[in-house]
Design brief:
Blueprint lengths: L30 H20 L3 E2 L2 E2 L1 E4 L4 E4 L2 E3 L5 H21 L2 H5 L2 H17 L2 H9 L4 H27 L4 H9 L5 H21 L1 H7 L2 H4 L10 E4 L1 H4 L24 H4 L20 H13 L6 E4 L1 H4 L9 H23 L3 E7 L5 E2 L5 E11 L5 E7 L6 E3 L3 E4 L4 E10 L7 E11 L6 E10 L4
Antiparallel strand pairs: 1-2, 3-4, 4-5, 6-7, 8-10, 9-10, 10-14, 11-13, 11-15, 12-14, 15-16
Helix pairs in contact: 2-15, 4-6, 4-8, 6-7, 6-8
Length: 464
Amino acid sequence: MSRLISVTQIEPTSPGSESKQKIQPRSFTGFYRRLRITGGSVLFTLYFGVVWLNWEGRQAVLWDLSEKKFHIFSATFWPEDLVLLSGILLICAFGLFFLTVWAGRVWCGYACPQSVWTWVFLWAEKVTEGDRGRRLKMDAAPNTLNKIVRRAAKHGLWVLVSLVTAVTFVGYFSPIRSLVTELISFDASGWAVFWILFFTAATYLNAGWLREKVCFHMCPYGRFQSSVVDSDSVVVSYDSARGEPRGSRKKDASQVPAHLGDCIDCQLCVQVCPTGIDIRDGLQMECIGCAACIDACDSIMDKMGYQRGLVRYASERELKGGTSRLLRPRLIGYFAFLVLMIGLFSWGVVSRPLVTLDVERDRGMFRFTNDGKVENSYLLKLTNKDSQPRYLLIGVKGRDDISITGSRGVALGAGEKAEVPLAVAYPPSASTAGAKELVFEVSTLNGAGEMVTETSTFIGPSNN
């Protein structure tokens, strides 16, 4: 009987079938493990390295909460630019959907922080307590000095990795160099210490203790996977037509019963799985697509002299003897939306004004000047969001019959703000009854003619 489960009907493992024992994955080698280590190393280098880069006299990537600025190398984003954050989230969402339709949960297996940090914690566990067999024996053994020392060393490494992770994360919101200096000298603020301890505990618990439970019960990705993948999605699969019926046998091919498939039922694919599932039962919600079972199975196939690929990346259609279709409406649709969102986001970043203007009219109604003019007072709030200083020229659009009292120009450094008070007066000959629309404009002397405008009102006396 075929054991293939349709990838379009992924079901979670029932609570009663979950192993109550701690999952102890077995170490292994293989192509996908090397690929995962390479990818994880790149991500670790970026995460721990970028925070130390400087750019134009400041930290290259910094979400400065005190100044309400987000610096990414030469670009600076302000609170009013946070609408672009929704664009980033949409890009990530459609990118994830596209990736899942194409190749299942490869994000989970290769790039998800939960998975990457869990692999690091598993490495620390192996270094201190040994491989899977030794760890299982140690779990069942009574407490001894050797066991206590090894467990203490393991938790010490876990805490160290968690602490460095937390300090680095907080360093993206508070300049990392001053933060580390203040921590060493015990001068760090209470909030900095709180968040460092919070993220240290979160990393320690998630990667050290919860591990696969985060994927099972806290992450929604596995649950909506069934509504995204289709019969052409390339996912980690067991070729039941080739492997069944499974059974143990000697390495000598002449001794293999004719009715057996290629699966020798060694359980190695289960032992290396970080979520403890059996891929031979079909694609399951708990599978994170890490391909550990592929490496394990390929190593056994090599030893037995069988062809690799009993467990491999394959689609349901391919396992049934067909050919996977790369171009299909769902995949094309997600790709089109992804390209569209990237284009809109890029346009939004490039076209966003680097000078902002906000006009506040004085709450007073109006007043008469000595020469009989009607005058209103305004406060212009200017922001230079550029990384270069700018000289701004202030004027009123389309009005030659008014006079302006106050500074008509202001120099702003990179990232600076200024408040400029202005008084606008109409001549007695002009009709000043009621409210008039007044459009302020600010142009840059050294900004290639860039101009921003803001509309306000001018209040005059009533004709009654």
